[in-house]
Design goal:
Elements: H1 2-24, H2 38-60, H3 63-75, H4 130-139, H5 142-182, E1 186-189, E2 191-194, E3 205-213, E4 218-225, E5 230-234, E6 237-243, E7 262-266, E8 271-272, E9 278-281, H6 291-305, H7 309-344, E10 345-347, E11 351-354, E12 363-368, E13 371-376, E14 383-391, E15 403-409, E16 414-420, H8 423-431, H9 444-455, H10 461-469, H11 475-489, E17 495-496
Parallel strand pairs: 1-8, 2-9
Antiparallel strand pairs: 1-5, 3-4, 3-6, 6-7, 10-11, 11-17, 12-13, 13-14, 14-16, 15-16
Helix pairs in contact: 1-5, 6-7, 8-9, 8-10
Length: 498
């Protein structure tokens, strides 16, 4: 009984130590842990009565029974009873021949070494039966049970706290990573199209960026990209992109700046935004480039688009020279066109007209009063068309071998008649052995030129000869070719003289 009392005292001390540890752990109060002891108390009451009855019965039992009982407990090593009533057999109760003592081999008559394992002094563990477990549970005081449950809860809380700490640490790491990314410059690429631009020799394209980064800070700056759209670095955020000015190519090319603006969201490094932001820079006619466009392009080239201010200055000079050369060329063309127009413009006392552009430089004219003849090159004997003004009511008869090719009413009482040979018919007949009576014969190169001039290069000589006319001659078809063409290029320009 002494051992049992000592065990109970140790258990009580352990329970108190556990209670103190629990109180110090996050200051968890046992009062905050609710337990339903009603069921336990109900079960303990019969046990208490049973113990009281046992004590009463013990008072009348002989002392001898107590002694026998204590001896039995001593012999059994304080082992609990099993459900089947079987006794636990100890090793020290085994027969001598079953002892673990043996002689070491090879020692002969040497004293035997006793290697007996003193298992008899150590009771073998046994699994308590369901009845014993229930008895122990009933004998356990409510305070001790509460302490044990509190210990389990405390362990669970500690384990849960460790898990929460790990999860919280992971969350903090993720938040730190996001925060770090929010403050990390991200390289992005946009789409640009600028024909002939090489930013290694010219200037880069200035891109105006405005918006807010991930911290909510406002952004407004100019960044520069190459001909592939690379060069922009931004913090994560939402931005609006537009082209600030034209770059300058090495040859001085200035581009038309698109007016479009595009909104993008920067999320990660190396992000390709060309699907959302693509800008096309077209090349205008060089003579239309203004000083303001050149100055703006040079300004951005100097501020970051070019390798240096000196390089930007060289590009500006190239752009100015290219524009000036184009303006001079256009001016020269206009001056020449004016001279040509003057040369093509012809006038008589009754009407005026313009020689067709297709004929200019290939024909010449002679004039007599209100009669004007247009002939081939410097051969006055090869007229293409002769123009004659006739008063209304008077008749007109062309020269022998000529055909009336058209007429233009001046509106002042006169009509201008156009007449001449039908070369698409005459020339093939002449080359083909003079099956008809041609006005004259022509060398092949002259024949080809006459056909081309009178048909506006719509048909070749071979087509005229072999298809449209042929050997047997088709004057109506050939005439229509020439009259249709003259009606388009010559007759509309005939106007009454001012």
């Amino acid at each position: 009984m002494k051992d049992e009392t000592t065990g109970q005292e140790d258990a009580a001390q352990d329970a108190e130590a556990c209670a103190e540890a629990l109180e110090s752990l996050d200051r968890i109060s046992l009062d905050e842990i609710a337990f339903d002891d009603s069921g336990v108390d109900v079960q303990d009451e019969p046990e208490t009565e049973a113990q009281s009855d046992d004590q009463d019965a013990g008072d009348v039992e002989p002392a001898e029974d107590e002694a026998n009982h204590e001896d039995t407990e001593s012999e059994t090593g304080n082992q609990p009873e099993s459900d089947m009533g079987e006794e636990t057999v100890l090793l020290d109760s085994l027969p001598a021949e079953d002892s673990l003592t043996r002689e070491l081999p090879g020692l002969g008559s040497a004293p035997a070494v006793d290697e007996t394992i003193a298992m008899g002094d150590i009771p073998l563990p046994s699994v308590p039966s369901a009845h014993e477990a229930e008895v122990r549970h009933r004998k356990m005081s409510p305070k001790r049970r509460n302490l044990m449950v509190a210990g389990i809860v405390a362990v669970a809380l500690v384990a849960g706290g460790a898990g929460y700490a790990a999860w919280n640490g992971y969350q903090q790491e993720q938040a730190a990573a996001v925060a770090a990314n929010a403050h990390t410059m991200m390289s992005v690429q946009i789409g640009v199209h600028a024909a002939g631009l090489d930013c290694s020799t010219g200037s880069k394209i200035p891109v105006q960026v405005s918006g807010q980064d991930a911290d909510g800070s406002s952004v407004s700056e100019t960044l520069y990209v190459d001909e592939h759209g690379r060069g922009i670095k931004l913090l994560p955020g939402d931005y609006t992109l537009s082209i600030a000015a034209s770059p300058i190519a090495a040859d001085g090319t200035i581009y038309t700046v698109p007016t479009t603006k595009t909104q993008v969201t920067v999320k990660s490094d190396g992000q390709d935004l060309s699907a959302q932001a693509t800008f096309k820079l077209k090349v205008p006619s060089a003579d239309t480039v203004t000083d303001d466009q050149i100055d703006a392009a040079a300004k951005y080239a100097e501020e970051g688009g070019a390798s240096s201010a000196a390089a930007a200055k060289v590009l500006q000079q190239a752009a100015t020279a290219r524009r000036d050369a184009a303006v001079n060329a256009v001016s020269a063309q206009k001056a020449q066109a004016s001279r040509d127009a003057d040369a093509r413009h012809k006038a008589t006392d009754l009407y005026q007209l313009d020689i067709p552009v297709e004929w200019y430089g290939k024909v010449a004219t002679w004039q007599n009063g209100s009669t004007l003849c247009i002939y081939l090159g410097d051969d006055a004997n090869t007229p293409l068309v002769t123009l004659v003004a006739v008063r209304e009511g008077e008749s007109f008869t062309p020269d022998e071998g000529d055909t009336v090719l058209g007429a233009a009413n001046l509106g002042n009482g006169y009509t201008v008649y156009a007449s001449g040979p039908v070369y698409p018919y005459v020339v093939p007949q002449t080359i083909n052995g003079r099956t008809q009576n041609p006005v004259s014969t022509y060398p092949m190169d002259t024949a080809i030129e006459l056909v081309e001039l009178t048909t506006g290069n719509r048909y070749t000589y071979s087509q005229i000869k072999n298809v449209l006319v042929g050997k047997d001659g088709k004057a109506d078809a050939a005439t229509k070719l020439e009259t249709d063409y003259l009606a388009q290029i010559l007759l509309p320009s005939i106007k009454a003289q001012d």
